[in-house]
Amino acid sequence: MTATVDAPTSARAGEVEEPPAGQDAVREAVLDVCRAARVASKALATATRATKDAALLAVADALVAQAPRVEAANARDLERGAAEGLPANLLDRLRLDAGRLAAIAGAVRDVAALPDPVGEVVRGQTLPNGLRLRQLRVPMGVVAVVYEARPNVTVDAASLALKSGNAVVLRGGSAARETNAVVVEVVREALAASGLPADLVSTVDEHGREGVRHLLRARGLVDVLVPRGGAGLIAEVVRSSTVPVIETGTGNCHVYVDAAADLDVALAVALNSKTQRTSTCNTAETVLVHAAVAGAFLPALLTAMSAEGVRLHGDDAVRAAAEGLDGVEVEPATDEDWATEYLALELAVAVVPDLDAALAHIDRWSTQHTEAVVTRDLAVAERFAAEVDSAAVMVNASTRFTDGAQLGLGAEVGISTQKLHARGPMGLAELTTTRWVVTGDGHVRA
Amino acid sequence: MTATVDAPTSARAGEVEEPPAGQDAVREAVLDVCRAARVASKALATATRATKDAALLAVADALVAQAPRVEAANARDLERGAAEGLPANLLDRLRLDAGRLAAIAGAVRDVAALPDPVGEVVRGQTLPNGLRLRQLRVPMGVVAVVYEARPNVTVDAASLALKSGNAVVLRGGSAARETNAVVVEVVREALAASGLPADLVSTVDEHGREGVRHLLRARGLVDVLVPRGGAGLIAEVVRSSTVPVIETGTGNCHVYVDAAADLDVALAVALNSKTQRTSTCNTAETVLVHAAVAGAFLPALLTAMSAEGVRLHGDDAVRAAAEGLDGVEVEPATDEDWATEYLALELAVAVVPDLDAALAHIDRWSTQHTEAVVTRDLAVAERFAAEVDSAAVMVNASTRFTDGAQLGLGAEVGISTQKLHARGPMGLAELTTTRWVVTGDGHVRA
Fold it and tell me: Which residue intervals define the domain Aldehyde dehydrogenase in the entry (chains A, B) (predicted)?
C-alpha cells in the first residue's frame, strides 16, 4: 500500500485511480458495490463457523425452493443464446435444469460440511523473552471472481468465499446474465434471511465490460481477483488488473511414458488424460514416449487415440510408427503443436531419447500445470517429481486428477498455475491470508 | 502463464515483451543474466541441505577472508558518496568495516543453521481410491531483489535465496555499486569453490536504471521480485513490474491506548514504538488514546515524546491537554498527519471516544502493517486482534517487534504488507512455493 490517500469516504481506497472523463458514473457504481462488499466482509470476518454454515444451508435450500424462478431466467438466456447462434456445447454449459440446480445446492451443502480455515493457528510459539506469538488464518476480505458463462461458478464462488469469511463480487459475463442475476438475488435473500448482510454477494454484470475494467482496478477495495475462463480472459485480466490476481489454469499438460513404464498403465493414463474431458485445463495435450518403448507402445497409443476421434500430430518417429496402422493419420508436428493447448480431441506425440530429453521438452513447453510420468522405476519417478517445475506431478495416474474435489480439498475456486500464494487446485485456504498476533506484558525492544 | 511462446532458446520466456528499439542490447544482457540464473536454479532445486549449508559457510568464510578487498571497494563508494554530498546517515548506511563484515558473515552462518524449508511435506494423505498425495515445499526458482544502498542486503538476500534453493538476481542501486560488485564476486567465487554454479548469485547493477526496467518485465524468467526500500521504490516496482511482486512495508503503524490500559505499559510501548528506531517500517506514527484515560495519560505521553525530540501533531483534545505542559508544543493535526508515515521523530496523536472509533481510524488510515493495543481487558484485546486488518497486531508490546529475527523466523527478506503469499515478516518459507505429487497405480477418472 502506498501512502496516497483517496477521498476519505472510501476505506482503503488509497490506490483507486482516476478514470477517463464520462466513465465516472459506472466507476462510482462499481466502487460502491466494492465498498459495500468491504463493509459486509467486516461483519463476516468474525462470524462463527456455525453462522456461516447456517447461511450456506439457507442458500442451498433457497436455490432448490426458487428453482422455477432460476429456470425461467435461464430459459431467457438460452433463448437469447440460441438466437445469437451459440453452438450446442456452449448452450449446454449455460443450461440449468432442476437436476443441475439440485447438484449445485448439494455442492453448497458440501462446502458447509468442510472445515473452516478461518481461525486456524498456522504456527505459534512462546519466545525466550516471553512474547506469545500466533499466526492466525483470517479471511482475505473481498474476493472478485471474473468468469465466463457458467452459472454454477456463480454459486461455487459465492459459497467458497462465504465459507472462508469473505465477501464476493462477481462478474459472470453476458451469456448467462439473466440466470446469474436471479441466482445472485436468491443468494442475497437467503443471506439476509439468515441475518447476514446481503452485500456479501454481489455482481457488477449490469455494468458490462466497462464495469469489469473498474473492478480490475479497484486495488485497495478488492483484495484478490480470480479469473476463471479461457486463456484470453486470463491474459487480459493479468495484464490489466492492479488488484492482485491469482492466475488460473491454462494447461499444456504432458504425459511421459518412460522406458520402464507398464504399457497397459501408460495407455490407460494417456487415454484418460486426453479424452476423459477435452476442454479442461488438466487435459493432456502432448504425450512423450521413451525411444526404448516406442516400438511397442506407439501402435497401441495411436490406434486407441484415433478410435476416440483424436486428431494426431507427431514427430518423424511417431509418423513412421503410424505407417501401416489402419485408420491412423499423424500430421507432422511443429513447435506450435508442442506449445498449443488444444482443448479438443487433438494430441501431439513425440519420441524422446531419454528422461533428460523428456524433462527438457516439458521445461520448454509446459505451462506448469500438470505433467504425468508412467514408470515402474523409483528413481525415474522421484526425479520427475523433483525436477518438473509444475503445480502438479502425477506418477502412474491421469493428469485429470489435478482438481480440488479429486484431491480431497473440497470444492475448487480454480487451479492456479502461478507460484505465489496458491499453486494447483485452490480451495478455502487459498481465499485466506494470515495475521500475526503477538501478546506481551509491556515488551519493548532494547 | 499464457499460451504465447517466445524464442525457443529461452526456457519459460513466453511472456517476455519486445522492448523499444535501441534497448535491445541491455535487454538481452539482463535476460541473459536471468536465463543463466534460471539454469543455475535447476541445479540447486534438488541440492541437499548439507550442500547448501556448506556453500553458505564457504560464503561466510570468504567474506571475512576477503574483507580487505570488500573494504577497498567500499572506500571508493564512500569517497564518491561524500563527494556527491550524501548526508552522514546515508554514508553510514553504506559503510562496511571489518566489524560489520564479520556480523554479515555471522548472519550467513545463522542462515545455514536454519531448518531447510525445501522438501517439507506441507500436507498429504491417501485418498479413499488409493491415490497417495503430497504437497511438497519447493524453491520458487529465480528471485530478484531490488534494493537501495545497503550492502548487507546483498548478502542477506543471497543467503536466504540460496538456503531456500533459489537463484537470486540483485539490483542494489548506484550508491553502493562498487561494494556490491565485489561482494557478489566474492560470493560467486565461494559458490564455485563449493561446486555450485556461480550464476546462482548475480547482479544487473552494471546496466543501471534501464537494466532494472527489463528485470521488472522478465516475467517467466524471474519468479518473484522483492523490492526493499522507500515508498517511492516500492510503488514504482509494483506499478511497473510484470514479474509477481511481494510488496514490502510502508508502515503507518498505530498504538491504541485503551480505557483499560496499564498507563505505565502504554507509555513504554508508545515510546519504544516511536523512538527505538525512527526510520523503520514498524515504527509507530500515530498514537490513539481512549478519552477515558486521556486526562491521565496525555501529559505523560506528550512530555516524554517531547523530551525525546519528537515533533507532535494532535487533534483539539490533544492540544488542549498540552496547554501548560512545559516544553511541549503540539501542532494542529490534519488528515495528512493521520495518513503520513513520518519515518522521523514525529508523531500524530488523537483522542478517540471508544474502541469502535479507534478501529475505524485504524481501518481508514493504516497501511495494514502493524497496530498495537495496550489494554488489560481481554475482550478488547481479542476484538482488536480479530478486527484489525493488518499483517501484525501487538497486544501490550511494541510495534517494533514485527521483524523476522524478533519473531524467531530467522533472517528476513522484508516485511510484506500485502495479503497474498506472504504477510508480515518474510523468511525462508516465503521464498518457496509448493508442488502436488500424486502417486497412483494406473489411476484414471471415471
Answer: 24-307
Cβ contact (<8 Å) for A435 and B381?
A: no
**Nearest-neighbour CA in chain A from B315: distance (Å):** 17
Would the CB atoms of A365 and B423 count as touching at under 8 Å? no
CA distance A180 to chain B (A): 28
Rounded Cα distance, B114 and A184, in Å: 49
Residues of A in contact with B131 (CB under 8 A): 397, 401, 407
Give the pLDDT band (50/70/90) at residue A370.
very high
Q: Are B269 and A407 a contacting pair at CB < 8 A?
A: no
- Going by pLDDT thresholds of 50, 70 and 90, the confidence category of residue A408 is confident
Distance from CA of B200 to the nearest CA of A (A): 17
CA dist B393 to A301, B379, B401, B424, Å? 59, 15, 10, 10
pLDDT band at A18 (very low <50, low <70, confident <90, very high): low
The domain segmentation of chain B, as residue ranges, is 25-248+414-438, 253-401
Nearest chain A residue (CA) to B15: A235
- Distance from the Cα of B77 to chain A's closest Cα (Å) equals 30
pLDDT digits (tens, 9 = 90+) for A243-292: 888 888 789 999 999 999 999 999 999 999 999 999 889 999 999 999 99
Q: Flag if B440 and A394 touch (Cβ within 8 Å).
A: yes
Cβ within 8 Å, pair A341-B3: yes
Look at residue A185 and tell me whether its pLDDT is greater than 80.
yes
Can you give the pLDDT at residue B4?
A: 32
Ramachandran angles phi, psi of B283, nearest 5°: -80, 140
Residues in chain A: 446
Closest-CA residue to A427 (of A88, A102, A172, A107): A107
Q: Residue A340: closest CA among chain B residues belongs to which residue? A: B3
pLDDT over 90 (residue B316): yes
Say how far residue A315 (Cα) sits from the centre of its chain: 32
Task: Give the nearest chain A residue to B363 (CA atoms).
Answer: A11
Q: Do A387 and B42 touch (CB under 8 A)?
A: yes
Q: What are the chain A neighbours of B140 within 8 Å (beta carbons)?
A: 419
Cα distance between residue A169 and residue A189, in whole Å: 16
Which residue does chain B place closest to A129, by CA atoms? B406
Q: Which of A1, A11, A341 is facing B364, going by the closest CB pair?
A: A11
Q: Mention the CATH class of domain B253-401.
A: alpha beta
Contact B45 A386 (CB under 8 A): yes
| Residue A14 per-residue DSSP state | T
A392, B235: Cβ pair inside 8 Å?
A: no
Spatial separation of the C-alpha atoms in residues A205 and A212, rounded to whole Å: 8
Residue B148: its pLDDT value, please? Answer: 85
Q: Please, what is the average pLDDT of chain A?
A: 92
Percent of chain B at pLDDT exceeding 70:
95
Residue environment code for B113-140, b if the CB has 16+ CB neighbours within 10 A, otherwise e: ebebbbeeeeeeeeeeeebbbbbbbbbb
Q: What is the tens place of the pLDDT at every residue in A122-156?
A: 999 999 999 999 999 999 999 999 998 788 889 99
| Percent of chain A topping pLDDT 70 | 95
- Burial, B90: exposed, middle or buried (Cβ in 10 Å; 0-12, 13-18, 19+)? middle
- If you average pLDDT over residues B188-207, what whole number do you get? 97
Confidence of residue A4 (pLDDT cuts 50, 70, 90): very low
Q: Are A180 and A205 in contact (CB under 8 A)?
A: yes
- What class has domain A25-248+414-438? alpha beta
Report the candidate in B224, B38, B6 with the shortest Cα–Cα distance to residue A389: B38
Specify whether the CB–CB gap between B55 and B162 falls below 8 A. yes
Residue A39 has phi, psi (to 5 degrees) of -60, -45
Across the A:B interface, residue pairs with CB atoms under 8 Å apart total 252
